[in-house]
Every structure is written in structure tokens, then in C-alpha cells.
Amino acid sequence: MKEWLRSIPAVHELQKHGQFEVLLKENHLDVTQLTKQLKEAVDQIRTLLIKGDWHGATPGSNQFIDEVFQRLEVNIKKQYSYTIEKVINATGTILHTNLGRARLSNNAIHHVVETAQNYSNLEYKLQEGERGSRHSHVEALLKEITGAEATMVVNNNAAAVYLVLRALAENKEVIVSRGQLVEIGGSFRISSIMEESGAKLVEIGTTNKTHLYDYENALHPETAIIMKVHTSNFKVIGFTKSVETEALIGLTQNSENVIFYEDLGSGALFDFRKHGIGDEPVVKEVIEMGADIVTFSGDKLLGGPQAGIIAGKKKIIDRLKKHQLARVVRVDKMTLAALEGTLIDYARGENGVQNIPTIRDLLVSIDVIDDRSKRFVTNLLQGSDHFQAKIFQSTSQVGGGTMPDVKLPTMSISLKHHSLTAEQVGKKLRTQFKPAIVGRIQKEEFIIDLRTVTDEEEHLLLQALLQL
To answer: Which terminus of the chain is less hemmed in, N or C, by CB atoms within 10 Å?
Structure first.
């Protein structure tokens, strides 16, 4: 062992090796960084030798030096590879939170790239030649699409809720039905956000039933807001009662200095109900009813980037824009560019929204998915005799804590490999291919739903399966 350890070449000797120069040029590193990586590779091998876990060439041999540089090359690739990488989502869940939720449209992507590569008029008025506001870039589009008097954008919907409560109800009362005290992703609770904001929560009704008189009885001189939280991530069914938005708006209109605020969460700008999908309220409808202010997400049903959008009465939005927290929760130029690119498609109407992947994937028919699945299975079985495959009717999920009761009819592909388990197939597709592929495992079968797979991705998915 001691002889082996003494036989490990010194780092300064390894630096003279031709492979060191090759790695230096190939990876565009400076000598200091590559030397640091080389030291780490040598230390790793030394540790393995001491533990008796080294199974490579004998230290001091030419083969050993080759293995040092092979390990160094692996370490470099690991160190300087992106950790956020492209994934093919073959699960059928459209807004898959773990896989990044909404995919951006081509218009949004091109606008982000152009904005990121260049200087922009983010906070500059080109006509006037003076300082402008970053809020202005998407406000006109949002006003047109939602019908609101004014809007602003923050970094996510939780931030939007927090800003509204902090700016409009600090040390004052906010009335909320117990049945709407929801918990969103990452254990963030509406009640906790309200507590952090400094607003005083007034819970009314019960989990399953809240009446208009519960709101009326809770009104108090210290009441600042009647808040309705759309329960977009769960449904209470059975013996239930809730108060409609219109009734609550009427109540606040008759109550001096009380604001009606609805957190719509999912942010539907498109009416999916016309296509028989769910019952999500459209933002514009709530604004037209007379809501003082609403908040919603950008990367859920809207199909854009992560953002929190606040829309409503101008005098209220102006207060929010001037609040000190507005700078804390503001969005950057790339988010605004992605949102503007997405909203322009909405402004174009029915034809434009088909460019938005979230809406396109939600609306695709089961017949289209069935045809694609049949072609896919035919191509797979013609190219490989390692699989058994069948197509069966199932359902896709919307995901992202949105439309929890909606099951979209789909056709799924069930695969069984002749020598690999479903778990092994899934792991190999996740870890041995670029891009990684994520599907579902169900009853010892690997399941693919092409609803969330593009034509280009379908080809990559097929090639990966053929290589198994």
C-alpha cells in the first residue's frame, strides 16, 4: 500500500503530460482551475487506495496515468455541466410542478432571447427620452385581456397575495371563509402568509359551509378586506355551501372602505369551460363583476413564466406600485419578456392562444393522441423485439395544483421490456439519455402519454427506447 501511494505521480508532473494540455484547450479552463480539478482527482484515487476500494491499474504505470486523466475528465464534465437540463415529460401531466410547469410559446422564447442578448428599454421611454417604468410593458396587454383598470406583475402569486395584504390590510382585519384557507405548494398556507403580512385573519363559516350572513356578521370598523380564495388545488364535494363572488362584491360595495379581493390562483385568461374542461373562473369575468382586485399565477393555466399578476381598480394598484415591497417582489426583464410574448398570443384571440403549449396540450383531442400512439407503437415494435406494447384509454392530469377534479381523456402506451423491470426502464431513461425522459410506472408497466410530448421529442423518445 505504501509503495502504491508513493507511486502516485505528483501533480506538477501530471501537469506536464500532454493530456493536461488537451483538457485545458477542450474545456476552455485556465491552468489554476484545471490544476485544482487534477488535485481533486488524485485525492479521490488516493482515498480509494487507502480504503482498499481501488480496482484500476497499478499506480505508477502508464495505464494508471491514463485512468487519472479519465477521472479528471469525468470530474470536469460533472463540475461544468448545467444542473437544470431539458427533460422529456412523457407523464401526460401538463403543468408538472417538478418538471418546470408551463412550457413557453415560441413567441415568448424568442422575445426572452432577444431581450437577454441586448440592451432594452426596460425602464426607459424611447419617445420621451426619459426614465420609464417596467410595469408599463405588459400593463396595456393585461388591461385589454382582463378588462382591469390597472395591473402590475410580481415574482409569483404568493408574493402578489403578500403584497396586497401587507399594503392594504396591515394591522386591519381580513375576512376569509374557513373552507378557503388553503395550503399551496411547499407548505405555504394562506393563513401563514396573512400572519406574516401583518393582517388580522378573521375566519368565518365552517370547512364545508359558509353563508353570506357569516360575512355580514364579521364586518367590523377594522375590516379592510373581504377575501375569497379560489380553491384551485382541491375540491370539497357533498354537503357544501359557499358564497358567490357577485354577492360578496355587492356586500363590499355597501360597506365603506372595505375591499373585495379574490385570489384566483390558476389564472385562467382562456375560457376552458367552452371546451368542456373544468369550471375555472375567467379573470375577465371576475373583473367585470366588480372585484376591486384579483391576483393569479403566470405559469399555471395562463401558460407563461413564473409570475404573480395583480389586476383591478387603478387607485388600488397605484397604492401597490408605490409600496416599498413592490421593489422587493418585482420581476426581471426576462420574465417580463416571456410574459409579454405570451400575452400577445392571447391578444390575437382564438388563433393566437393555440401557440401557447399549455392551452394546446389541454385542448388536443383523444383521437389525435390515439393516432400518434398507434404510429409510435408500430415504429417501436418494428425496430425492437425487446418490448411488449399496448395502447389503452386513460386520463391525463392538468397538474400544478390546478383543476384537481379534471381528468382529460387520453390514450396511453403501456410498455413491458423482456428483461428489464419497469423501474429499471424508468431509471435508464432518466439517467442514461440526454434529454432525460420521465414517464409513469403503473402495475409493473412503464406508461407513456404523448399528450405532453412534442413531435420532435417523440422521435428522441423512440430512439431511446430502441437503444434499451
So the answer is: N
